[in-house]
Amino acid sequence: MAKAATKSAAPTVARAPALAGRDFSAKGVRLAVLAPAERMALRAPEASLAALSKALGVTLPKAPKTSAGKGARTAMWLGPDEWMVIDEAGGDPLADCAKVKQLHSAVGISHRNVAISVTGPAAAVCLNAGCPQDLSLAAFPVGACSRTILGKSEVVLLRTAEDAFRVECWRSFSDYAFAFLCQAATDAAA
Amino acid sequence: MLLIRCPYCEEERPELEFRNAGEAHVVRSADIAAESDEDFEKFFFIRANPKGITFERWRHVHGCARFFNAVRDTVSDKFFMTYKAGEPKPDLAKIMKSVPAAAPAASDDATEDKPKKPAARRAAAKKGDA
After folding, report:
1. Chain A residues within 8 A of B9 when measuring between CB atoms
2. A65 touching B, CB under 8 A?
3. Rg of chain A (C-alpha set)
4. Structural domain range at position B92
5. How many domains would you assign to chain B?
6. Out of A101, A183, A184, B9, which residue is the most buried by the measure of CB atoms under 10 Å away?
7. Which segments show compositional bias classed as Basic residues (chain B) (predicted)?
8. CATH of the domain at B14
9. Does B64 touch chain A (CB under 8 A)?
10. Which residues in chain B show pLDDT less than 50?
11. Is the Cβ pair A82, B1 closer than 8 Å?
């Protein structure tokens, strides 16, 4: 685990992430591909949570569909013993977890995912074109997160503000997800 | 779209997030090597497949990814309850009592006279017209 956490030497070629720089605007909805971030899939039993929360600097949420954030780091509840941790400021959650002695599984998935932001007053309508969940503020408040589906692909949804969502999709699905959202945004505007 | 309550997410979620995973409460023998061929066949291949109330495993595959058990009516597709994996099989009679609408759907074999009813009503209407 410690080996995986050590960073390799500085790359000689600039990284070109999938969909980098793509964006799309329609009336009421704006789509943008977010900058690369550090991501980690974390599985741990109840007994390890306190130590992991301390090492990460974020209290891992225990309630379904909730997230916790501190600074540039967000921990999202995905299942009863499963979390996704995102660090947008370049911090390495894997390295932080490597110091923890308690039982856990931490897997780096930074390059597996692409994040798309969906913002604007019609953001929820746009996502509901392919996501069957209730995205009203009562059922899906700010800070709520969930693994769900968008059209034919699985995504992780995080509501960052009343009219803003972060859509985390797998890199290989990202082209499909972005094209789907572009069409949905056009339809939501109509 | 059906809404299925996930006992781990503690709320109802759309059916698209779920996947059926076969009959529940199929217990694997502790000493599988000593099992006779007939018993193994029963455990491995033979399923109840009832018309009516069935106990099934489901997986919230596009959600929390956990397996859980559900009580469902195969005729009406109604979910009566869901419970966490590992919990004991609930008492069927108790479920039926708590859901009064469940009883007819479970034993709904006496529906033969249903198609006749609209025809009878139509005939009555005609009489009224004349």
Report:
1. 64-65, 146
2. yes
3. 17
4. 3-129
5. 1
6. A184
7. 117-130
8. 3.30.2270.10
9. yes
10. 104-130
11. no
